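FORM 7B - TANDEM STRUCTURE REPORT

SECTION 1: FIRST PROTEIN
SEQUENCE AND TOKENS:
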Amino acid sequence: MLHATLRFLPSLSLILLTVVATHMTMSLAQTVMHRYFGHRAWGGKFYRNHVDFHHAYYARDHLASAIYLGDAGNNTPYFLIPVCMVGACAYFLLPLHLFVVAALACAASFYAHVLFDKEYHVEDSMLLRFAWFRHMRKLHFVHHRHANTNFAVVDFYWDRLLGTYRGPDVERDAHRNLRPSAVTPRPPPTHRSAAAP
């Protein structure tokens, strides 16, 4: 039994490495495509769809709604094109069992990106009970207020590496429920409070 388990460990390590590498590749691709196609005019239809729909529905102090808005102008189907192209290359480069693992990891990662992006904008999302999700939601809302920051949807460490990260503390909007009605402007500081250490 122990001998059989030890023989299986290298294969298990390779499977785990494939899962992690696939997700990281998907996550980086999403961040880069979001930044360079969704927020640059030369992104053409991708740019118009993203800005005219998603950022129009959820802008400034209207960041969440009862149901997710924005199926019109959704760029998600277009992201499947490069995913399928990379998948076709992986089919010829990887052994069949690792290709299947990579395909499943790719599908799971893609689903997570779509799910999180929708759940960030739903007022009563079931995921709000998790502190890690509330933090990620704040980071995503920073992106909707400052469109040149926080392009990631799941892994915000890519924004740190790309120099586009902006933390939620900068926003000072850490309200408990982050609903649009809960966001109130803060009064400007007086000279005395601004000068205080």
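SECTION 2: SECOND PROTEIN
SEQUENCE AND TOKENS:
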Amino acid sequence: MRYYLVGGGVLLAMILAGVVISMKSGKTASPLAGSLPVVADLPESEPLKSGPTAPAPPRDDVFLAKAEPLARKFLAASTVEQ
């Protein structure tokens, strides 16, 4: 039992030492960060062509007028079939 406890402590110390050493190494950016294209350097694409647009959502009062009877019927149901 004592060996497991000592081994766990040594393993924990090694992990903590690795984390501290990697944080102290001073690397702040990945090596690939400089090779990525900047958005401003990309060629401009064509604007999206306008197509059919989604219908505008109904006004709140219209939606509530349609939804209220359905909600009342749902809440008044006593069985799944209703």
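SECTION 3: OBSERVATIONS ON SECOND PROTEIN
The longest helix spans residues 2-24.
The two ends are 65 Å apart (CA to CA).

SECTION 4: SIGNATURE
Preparer initials: ____
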